[in-house]
Write a structure and sequence with these properties.
alpha+beta, single chain, 32 strands, 4-stranded antiparallel sheet, elongated
């Protein structure tokens, strides 16, 4: 791996590496299994879990930083007890290597797709792969049920093909009596009159073409006229009547495109296919054999793709234990990557923009929002318009816009993709500072938290206030939606956390366990946990799965007691808690044991807020020292601070 120099003026130290140009260990060999590098010995054909320490290559581990010292017995020898949490984390993290950003040749925007999920052929392929998987796994009853249901749909589809093929043949041969009889027999209730009009119109035009005017007159009066309501444009029947005085169909302007009887019949076939919603390119059956283990092979390729475009790559083939989440390489930030300078006063909030998180947004007491390039640390855009400090920022999942909450009693909506430096919407309704804002996953609404003790729900597109939630006895410091978007969780200076039903506006749960002002709340990605930060010098984790908000863990060691808003967030893989602190440090705890795992130093004042990005494997922090800093895992440096064991 080659060493690269960081961007001038932004990095605090040398980079440990850029993208490795050697072949990826997750390039898929024939059959869909990841093919390992020559220096890496993958022992399985499937992607393995990076958290499985037993899968870590011993040779690779030998060159990794020194692990934390193992516990010792009274005689000085290693303890036979289980490894500490720090040792487990060290083993997991040291099995990763920084790979950097991998450019993608295919960029799918929202709504784009490589294949059409509604295509009957694609649907058939998916069903056949599911049937094969169920058969391989011994789910015979389930397989037969799906197969029977799929065969019914297949039979219906096959019958439609047969019907259309027969109609096509009869139309091209001009067997109009048989065509009409077939349409009536099949009972096309919704389209019957339209089909009849198309048939009679074609017969009439052919009679005019052959100059059989008596036959044409009979068709017009007895067949076309009764269904003239189905004409394709208002004057079509009038034009058909006028044709009785003409020598050729093309003498009437509306039929200038007439190109003979046979071509017209072919157009009628296409019209029938459109009216019957029939796609002639669809296959009624597939002659392609389903390759062995096709579904599992495609899933392995999908996971390998996720690993390939991850910032950190495992040194050995990982053992993935769930397919319901994106692949995340276990990393623990241990070094400063970039220092983002530009704000003229303290920076109150920081957030990654969108799911890709290639932009960082920060809000400051200088009344501006700044956008930074995540990779280079360069400022991208400065957004001005607020007349007081920015307390909080939230981004739409698609990065379509960001929302900023300010001390000027407003929330502003900014159009990030278009680079507008003026707000596209200003939300008003609070009296006093707006301390918190969160964008709904549907990107249609935002929830806000204010000094006026209220939480408010706004419509983003109209700027209208939709609902006000009242019940806290003091300022509301933070509001966030749950993962389903049907609840709002709020934190308050009255030391409580409340859960609100969005539809009814009622408080369905109040959590009273903190003894100090609650400065932030966040929902875990699984939706099972709420993380809170409080001025009682603790961060707490609440289990809400049973309907009871039960405090499961407390995380202590940092400082959060004075007038500052110190906020916490979930860290890597939702397995850690990360928090700012008044002593200028960033603290990271293990969720399972509440053990302090990391302390990051670099800021020269209280750290107000932190944000973690899984796609970027990057931690961002903001501080009283007017800077935003990003933190990453640097292999060349010790993983833990000297006093962490």
């Amino acid at each position: 791996m080659s060493n690269t120099k960081p961007a001038a003026g932004n990095a605090s130290g040398p980079s440990v590496g850029s993208k490795d140009d050697s072949p990826s260990p997750f390039a898929l060999a024939p059959g869909g299994s990841p093919a390992g590098r020559s220096s890496v010995h993958a022992t399985t054909s499937s992607v393995a879990d990076v958290g499985d320490v037993s899968s870590v290559d011993v040779v690779s581990m030998a060159s990794s930083p020194t692990p934390p010292a193992s516990p010792r017995t009274s005689n000085g020898g290693p303890s036979s007890s289980r490894p500490t949490r720090s040792e487990v984390v060290w083993q997991q993290v040291s099995s990763c290597v920084y790979h950097g950003w991998t450019p993608k040749s295919i960029h799918l925007t929202q709504g784009e797709s490589i294949f059409n999920p509604q295509s009957p052929q694609i649907k058939s392929d998916i069903i056949r792969m599911i049937i094969q998987y169920l058969a391989n796994e011994g789910y015979v009853a389930s397989m037969m049920t799906i197969q029977d249901e799929a065969n019914v749909k297949f039979t219906d589809h096959h019958n439609r093909h047969r019907l259309m093929n027969r109609l096509t043949k009869l139309i091209l041969e001009g067997e109009w009596g048989e065509v009409e009889k077939l349409c009536t027999k099949q009972n096309f209730k919704a389209n019957l009159k339209a089909l009849q009009y198309a048939i009679y119109r074609q017969q009439y035009l052919e009679a005019i073409e052959k100059q059989e005017y008596q036959k044409a007159f009979s068709l017009l009066t007895k067949r076309v006229k009764p269904v003239e309501g189905m004409q394709t444009h208002p004057n079509e029947v009038k034009d058909l009547c006028y044709l009785l005085t003409c020598k050729s169909v093309t003498d009437v302007p509306s039929f200038k495109s007439w190109d003979g009887i046979q071509h017209s019949r072919e157009q009628l076939v296409e019209q029938f296919q459109s009216m019957l919603e029939f796609d002639p390119s669809e296959n009624t059956h597939s002659t392609v054999r389903v390759p062995p283990n096709r579904l599992v092979t495609l899933l392995q390729q999908a996971v390998a793709y996720q690993i390939e475009f991850s910032r950190y790559h495992p040194k050995t083939c990982p053992n993935i234990n769930t397919l319901l989440e994106e692949y995340k390489c276990p990393v623990l930030p241990n070094a400063e990557r970039h220092i983002l300078r530009g704000h003229r006063q303290n920076v109150k909030c920081v957030a990654f923009v969108g799911t890709d998180a290639d932009i960082i947004a920060s809000g400051s007491s200088d009344n501006t929002v700044r956008l930074w390039n995540t990779d280079s640390g360069d400022v991208v855009l400065t957004l001005g318009g607020h007349t007081s400090r920015i307390w909080d920022i939230s981004s739409a999942p698609t990065a379509a816009f960001i929302a900023s909450a300010s001390g000027d009693s407003t929330v502003k909506i900014w159009d990030v993709p278009n680079g507008d430096t003026s707000a596209v919407q200003t939300l008003r309704g609070h009296e006093g500072d707006v301390y918190g804002v969160d964008v709904h996953r549907g990107e249609t609404h935002v929830a806000t938290a204010g000094y006026d003790k209220t939480t408010r729900l706004f419509d983003v597109s109209t700027g209208q206030l939709v609902k006000t939630f009242t019940g806290h006895n003091s300022s509301v410091t933070k509001a966030c939606f749950n993962n389903h978007g049907n609840l709002i969780i709020t934190a308050s200076k009255d030391t409580t956390i409340k859960l609100w039903d969005v539809v009814s506006g009622l408080c369905i749960k109040t959590v009273q366990d903190h003894v100090g002002e609650v400065t932030s709340v966040q929902m875990s990605s699984s939706g099972n946990w709420i993380l809170s930060a409080s001025k009682d010098n603790s961060n707490r984790l609440w289990d809400i799965r049973t309907g009871r908000a039960k405090c499961e863990h407390r995380f202590k060691g940092h400082q959060n007691t004075s007038k500052n808003f110190i906020r916490a967030c979930f860290g890597p893989n939702d397995n850690m808690v990360v928090s700012g602190s008044e002593d200028g440090l960033i603290y990271m705890w293990d969720i399972e044991t509440s053990q302090l795992l990391q302390r990051l130093s670099g800021h020269n004042g209280p750290v107000y807020a932190v944000a973690w990005s899984a796609p970027q494997c990057l931690l961002a922090s903001c501080s009283q020292d007017c800077t935003v800093r990003t933190w990453w895992y640097d292999q060349s440096k010790p993983l833990f601070a000297p006093d962490i064991t």
